[in-house]
Amino acid sequence: KQEVTQIPAALSVPEGENLVLNCSFTDSAIYNLQWFRQDPGKGLTSLLLIQSSQREQTSGRLNASLDKSSGRSTLYIAASQPGDSATYLCASDTGGFKTIFGAGTRLFVKA
Amino acid sequence: SQTIHQWPATLVQPVGSPLSLECTVEGTSNPNLYWYRQAAGRGLQLLFYSVGIGQISSEVPQNLSASRPQDRQFILSSKKLLLSDSGFYLCACRGGAATGELFFGEGSRLTVL
Question: Could you read off the pLDDT of B7-51 as tens digits, one per residue?
Fold first, then answer.
């Protein structure tokens, strides 16, 4: 059974800092790994999706990497801004119509 | 990309009352549809998923049910709400692309008193 863990649970950084959010999963037989952002009281917004055959994906200041052999994915945020404050969730798709989510990392960027 | 509409956005209901949450999808056809629940401070729990009209799979035994009367409509229901049904309900969609990307609606917050 796939388990997804995100560390740390919460993170506070000053504006402008580069940061890395971590996601680990127990079953390396994944189809894809997806990163989401969730603002308080809102739904999830898809940030990046990495297919199992890919090593990384980039969108603007965001870069997500995937290492299936070690069961890890990271989300790198460059030059963080207060508007980046949100909860970030990773999710792995192992097929069978089920996606397993981590509990998320709550990020606070201080101005 | 897909757009997912959920309503109502907020709902306060007494224990024992019925429930109906609706989700509709635009921008794709024959999607896989999902209902998730997010309790305060906890992760997402998959409740139901559907691969087609009238096809519902339940992940968690409970007093909730789901229906899919049309290709892009997914409904979450209950005949009698419990206090434990309170939470944030999210509808999600996967379809129309080979990537398998999952998209979410804005959610419906249910408070049972």
Answer: 999 999 999 999 999 999 998 888 999 999 998 767 899 999 999
Q: How many CA within 13 A on the CB side of residue A95?
A: 6
List the one residue out of A31, A5, A2, A25 whose CA is nearest residue A104: A5
* A42 contacts on B by Cβ (under 8 Å): 106-107
Residue B96 gets which letter from DSSP?
S
CA distances from B9 to A21, A43, A60, B6, B22 (A): 30, 11, 31, 7, 10
- DSSP 8-state assignment for residue B65: E
- What's the CA gap between B8 and A20, in Å, rounded? 36
Chain B residues with CB under 8 Å of A89 CB are: 43-44
